[in-house]
Design a protein that fits this description.
Radius of gyration of chain B: 20 Å
Strand content of chain B: 15-25%
Strand content of chain A: 5-15%
Number of helices of chain B: 5
Largest sheet of chain A: 4 strands, parallel
Radius of gyration of chain A: 22 Å
Order of helices and strands of chain A: HEHEEEHHEEEHHHHHHHEHEEHEE
CATH class of the largest domain in chain A: Alpha Beta
Mean pLDDT of chain B: 91
Distance between the termini of chain B: 36 Å
Number of domains of chain B: 2
Structural class of chain B: alpha+beta
Oligomer: heterodimer
Largest sheet of chain B: 5 strands, antiparallel
CATH architecture of the largest domain in chain A: 3-Layer(bba) Sandwich
Number of strands of chain A: 12
CATH superfamily of the largest domain in chain A: FAD/NAD(P)-binding domain
Shape of chain A: globular
Low-confidence stretches of chain B: none
Mean pLDDT of chain A: 88
Number of helices of chain A: 13
Helix content of chain A: 25-40%
Number of strands of chain B: 6
Distance between the termini of chain A: 33 Å
Strand order of the largest sheet of chain A: 9-2-1-10
Helix content of chain B: 25-40%
Largest interface: A-B, 122 and 115 residues
CATH class of the largest domain in chain B: Alpha Beta
CATH topology of the largest domain in chain B: Guanine Nucleotide Dissociation Inhibitor, domain 2
Order of helices and strands of chain B: EEHEEHEHHEH
Number of domains of chain A: 2
Strand order of the largest sheet of chain B: 2-3-4-1-5
């Protein structure tokens, strides 16, 4: 097959050591990791601007900057990888609103998530202690838990804390909600768990809710000054400062378009990959048999 | 599921009834646990909810670089919709904002919307408007995208997936890219991080 040939024949001498396809946060992170390790890396992006879900543009009136996809970044400031990079030196600045999140109710009151777990809990009435006992241990161990949570399946370095987190995280959000008695606390919890984009009776919906609440009390829910695009720009600026190369408006439809390299990393979904590796695809099914990855439910 | 996205420019600030909301970067608009649960379930079942769970952000209140003038602000919002839905949810979303901030609609100066297909066109990774790169249920949480020893490898040597369809999944943290690169460095370049 042609892709094997292009990769193997050129093992001895290639134009690049590695190519990354797609410049979202993960493509940029992969490119930086490879370049930092001494490789010669090319990052290609199909669109005219980099960033994937990190783009900001004047979508409405001149001068008004809108974040097209992501806007608020609790996971970026919690990320052990991003925190290992000198991104402030590449003009990235985070702003913390006084209140990370507010959840208003029909009666005119609201629950709030702030840096202080005590402040958030104290507005939940008789659920104050329930909130502190659920989120307190995760907040306390947040920095050691985050690398465990944000990793592939592995043997944990913090098995006890992780197990404690896991016991709650793997429950459906509807179960966790039974720990709360007030509609204020239950509503706040539902809003967090809904970030999973799943019905709240599904297993795992609690994981994202617990992490988002603990993140709020730990590193906050900041916005990047100038827009989400600034995260992508800072990552790209650091990557090129290491000697990495970026090409935009380079839409990859087949591996044959790429310069030779020893490895190609795709910041795209598994559903798009077969068409690039084996163009054209004969598989029109939404359940991709090559990957077992389910999308359209 | 996918998302329907709206961006507004408004005169002044979002007139929330609750003063706390005016100090918040992010708002969750869905009222009670029961309402939010029902909206998620309806969407999962393939229908658009009448009272969607709306996520709102008001960046320019805290970052003056987002707006050329202090008295006008940008507002960012979305709700969940069935995967691939092209239904215009602007009306339903604005109704939810209005519910907690009476007078919001009168302040709108301009708006722009994305349905799921327009989002996918903007970013082909959002298949059917899915910003999470695939369903995060128990079967896929730590096995994304396929059940094999390394989720970043593909069946072709030298080809890797580093997107949010791999662990630890969606969100802006770069950890999928970092772990995939680590795998490739070890496999192909004999470099151990």
């Amino acid at each position: 097959m042609h892709y094997c040939k292009s990769l193997i024949v050129t093992m001895s001498k290639t134009e690049y050591d590695a190519i990354v396809v797609g410049s979202g946060p993960n493509g940029l992170a992969a490119a930086i990791t490879l370049q930092k390790s001494g490789l010669h890396v090319l990052l290609v992006e199909g669109k005219s601007t980099i960033g994937g879900g990190l783009r900001t543009a004047e979508l409405t009136l001149p001068g008004f900057k809108h974040d097209i996809c992501s806007a608020i970044h609790p996971m970026a400031v919690a990320s052990p990888f991003f925190n290992s990079l000198p991104l402030e030196e590449h003009s990235l600045e985070y702003i913390q609103p006084p209140i990370a999140l507010a959840h208003p109710y029909d009666n005119g009151t609201s629950a709030i998530l702030t840096h202080s777990i005590e402040e958030t809990a104290s507005l939940l009435g008789i659920d104050k202690e329930n909130y502190l006992s659920l989120i307190g241990p995760i907040k306390k161990n947040f920095h050691s838990l985050i690398p465990e949570i944000l990793g592939p399946l592995h043997i944990p370095k913090r098995p006890i804390e992780l197990a404690q987190f896991g016991l709650n995280a793997l429950q459906p959000a509807t179960w966790i909600s039974k720990r709360f008695r007030t509609s204020v606390a239950k509503g706040l919890w539902a809003g967090m768990a809904a970030h999973s984009i799943l019905p709240l009776n599904k297993l795992t919906t609690s994981a994202i809710g617990l992490v988002l609440l603990a993140a709020g009390h730990s590193r906050g829910w900041p916005i990047p000054k100038g827009g989400s695009q600034q995260i992508a720009n800072a990552l790209a600026s650091y990557f090129t400062s290491l000697g990495g190369k970026i090409e935009t408006s380079f839409n990859v439809e087949s591996l044959a378009q790429l310069p030779s390299s020893k490895a190609v990393l795709f910041d795209i979904t598994p559903r798009q990959l077969p068409d690039i590796v084996f163009p054209p695809s004969t598989n029109g099914n939404s359940k991709n048999t090559a990957t077992g990855w389910e999308f359209s439910r | 599921m996918g998302v329907f996205k709206v961006d507004w420019v408004i005169e002044g600030e979002v007139p929330f009834t609750s003063p706390n909301c005016r100090q918040a970067g992010t708002l969750h608009l869905g009222n009670t646990f029961e309402e939010i649960t029902a909206a998620q379930q309806t969407t999962w079942n393939g229908r658009s909810p009448e009272k969607p769970f709306v996520l709102l952000a008001q960046q320019s209140l805290f970052d003056s670089t987002r707006s050329p003038t202090k008295d006008k602000n940008v507002v960012w919002g979305y709700c969940h919709v069935p995967n691939g839905s092209t239904k215009d949810m602007t009306e339903a979303i604005e109704r939810q904002v209005e519910r907690f901030a009476p007078g919001f609609r009168e302040r709108i100066l301009a708006k722009h919307t994305f349905n799921t297909l327009q989002l996918e066109e903007h970013n082909p990774n959002y298949v059917g408007g899915d910003i999470n790169g695939g369903v995060i249920d128990l079967a896929q949480l730590y096995t994304r995208p396929a059940l094999r020893w390394s989720p970043y490898r593909t069946s072709a040597k030298g080809l890797y997936i580093c997107s949010s369809s791999t662990p630890p999944g969606s969100g802006v943290h770069g950890m999928c890219g970092y772990h995939a690169a680590k795998r490739a460095l070890k496999d192909i370049f004999n470099i151990k991080l």
